[in-house]
Amino acid sequence: MTFKVLIVDDEPDLEVLIRQRFRKRIREGEFEFVFAHDGEEALNRLKEDPTLDVVMSDINMPVMDGLTLLSRLTDVNRILKAVIVSAYGDMQNIRTAMNRGAYDFLIKPIDFSDFEITLNKTIQELEGIKKGLRARDELTAIQYELSVASRIQQSILPRNFPPFPGRTEFEIYAHMSPAREVGGDFYDFFLVDPDRLGFVIGDVSGKGIPAAIFMAVCRTLLKATALQGGTAGECIKYVNDTLTRQSDSAMFVTIFYGILHTDTGELEYCIAGHNPPYVLPATGEPFRLSEPAGLMAGAFEHAVFQTGRLTLGPGDGVFLYTDGVTESEDAAGQFFGEQRLANLLARMPGATAEELTGSVLDEVRLHALGSTVSDDITALVLKYKG
User: Fold this and answer.
1) Which of 97, 338, 376, 380 would be 102's cystine partner, CB 3.0–4.6 Å?
2) Across all residues in the chain, what is the average pLDDT?
3) Are the CB atoms for 122 and 104 separated by under 8 Å?
4) How far apart are CA 342 and CA 28, in angstroms?
5) Tens digits of per-residue pLDDT, 187-213?
6) Any residues with CB less than 8 A from the CB of 284 and at least 6 apart, and which?
């Protein structure tokens, strides 16, 4: 990289001396010097050439002196470093120059060894500032891209509730809060046919953008498979076999996939390494639906996934969640925990799907106050009306 330095001085011999002193570094392309004879000419040079970043200026010059030039450098819309040159003993003007933003100063007659040291130091300082600005700009660009990715991710999850106006056999509500701008949790629900509602919750291994991309793949693959009409276990097996064949990222996903037969209340489901959901009877205590349990999807080729069955009565429901709920930590590092979740669910037997989801997530957020959220938090509630 060639560093371009603007020398501002009305002494004509200075240009010859500088070119002679730095001839080797000029020849090797390390430095390029541009010269102006007063402050006004210097400002014009700076406006014409955006690659000029270092200004070394005398104080006493005709037309526009060096102190006035310093005060006008803010008109040049970029980062500049200025070194002022003044006579020995002229401390008042040197102090004024430093107060107006000069980075350093040199004393006349110029000692070219000191000149070179000062120039190198100024350039290093300038490069440090530029590096910091580049890092800031890159971070800003990354944050913008993450915000776009977050909006895209949120847009692919169902957000309109109730999602199926006119369907009175069930109600469903879900919410996902990513720990970062984007996350690996997901949920979905869709009508497989007029009498079957598919619903799913998943948690991808890892965090950030890789997890978000893998999450989108898993959600799309599962929905496309589910709409073909297979059992819950068959759908998860197809997802698993496809992921293990085509993914080399060493990522996997835990999934609970359920199919509610809206005419009878029968629930068929498959648990692929995921937190067992809670069944919420209309009367009685909630209990965990832990069997049959299988391995996570995308980790092991030819893994077996079974389909479980349960019949829901009118008023019964299921609560699905990711481990970000129970493993949410407070400021002391204590988990929210399964027992606290079970107790909360037991206290709200008549709550709607939205009320129950909101209450659980509010309790989790309250528990986590004062701590850093390290995992996505997702919950889904399905109530069968009959």
Assistant:
1) 97
2) 89
3) yes
4) 74
5) 999 999 999 999 999 998 877 777 888
6) none
The ranges of the chain annotated as CATH 3.60.40.10 are: 158-384
Class of the domain covering 3-135:
alpha beta
φ, ψ of residue 300 in degrees (nearest 5): -130, 125
Q: Which amino acid is at 215?
A: M
As annotated, the residues of the chain forming the CATH 3.40.50.2300 domain(s) are: 3-135
> For the domain bounded by 158-384, which CATH number is listed?
3.60.40.10
Q: What are the E-state strand segments in the chain?
A: 3-8, 31-36, 52-58, 81-87, 104-108, 170-177, 185-193, 196-204, 253-261, 266-272, 278-280, 287-288, 293-294, 308-311, 317-321, 377-384
- Non-local (6+) Cβ contacts of 362 within 8 A are none
Distance CA(275)–CA(220), nearest Å, equals: 21
pLDDT in tens, 261-310: 999 999 999 999 999 999 999 998 999 998 898 999 998 888 999 999 99
For residues 359-379, one letter each, b for 16 or more C-beta atoms within 10 angstroms of the residue's C-beta and e for the rest, the string is bbbebbeebbeeeebebbbbb
